[in-house]
Structure formats: C-alpha cells, structure tokens
Sequence to fold (143 residues):
Amino acid sequence: MQPCELCGKNPAAHTADVEGSTMEVCKGCASFGKIIEQPKVVEKKVKVAAPEQGIVGDFSQLLKQARESKDMTQLDFSKFVAVKESMIHQFETGHLSPSLEQAAKLEKKLGITLVETIEPTKISLASGKEKDLTIGDILELGK
Ligand SMILES: [Zn+2]
Fold:
C-alpha cells in the first residue's frame, strides 16, 4: 500500500481530487479534497418515506357525534370550533375533509382523533453503483 501523498504517514485509501490534482490520500486527508474513486463498495440505500398524516375515514361521523353529544346545532357548533357553518355541514356530510390544521384544532376542542398517521412504506432504491476499475484507471493509479 502506497503512503498518503498528502501527509505521507497513513496508507492511501482514496483517490481524491485535491485542488485539481489527483492524489492518493489516506482517510483523514480525503476530506481535504473530493474523493474520486471509492473502494469498490456496493451501496444500497433504503429510502424511508416520512410518515404522512391524513384525516381519518370516519371524520364526518366523529364530528357529528361530537356535536350531538354537546347538544349543539351546526351553527352553535361552528361558533364553538370557530369554523364556518357551511364547512361544518360539508364536513358532516363528508363532502369536504378538514385540512390538517383544521383537524388539529377540532381535535383539541372536541377531544376526538381526526388525524391518523399513515405508515410509511419502504422504498428500496437500487442506486448503488458498482464501478470496476478500467485499464485507464489502473494506469492512472500507477502514476
Ligand atoms: Zn494523509
């Protein structure tokens, strides 16, 4: 193993572009430049989607039940939760789903659960690139 061209102390582990010139550097010195060729490693990245939030499917029923349990009309209820009466009507009939913000507000006011977290699905990305050294690379390394 040839020594690092920068510090000369550690064995070279990476080929890096250091200020425009290609050098064999150790792991520590690799940070001074841009690594060109990693040791042959197959990377497999697993992208995990962020958990998503959505409105529960039976929100219209939940809202109606919450309102009825308080013995309120849609108008009273709309004042209570500070949402337009026409919207309450749309929510209860299921024609419109509350936004996440609205749902959070309603949850607090009513003590019900309207937002659910949808489990993220794992997406496996085959982005790993396996790069073999070409004759040219080997000649380059030998310099
Ligand atoms: Zn070094």
Notes: Residues 55-113 form a domain with the 434 Repressor (Amino-terminal Domain) fold (CATH 1.10.260.40). The pocket of zinc ion is lined by residues 4, 6-7, 10, 25-26, 28-29 (CB under 6 Å).
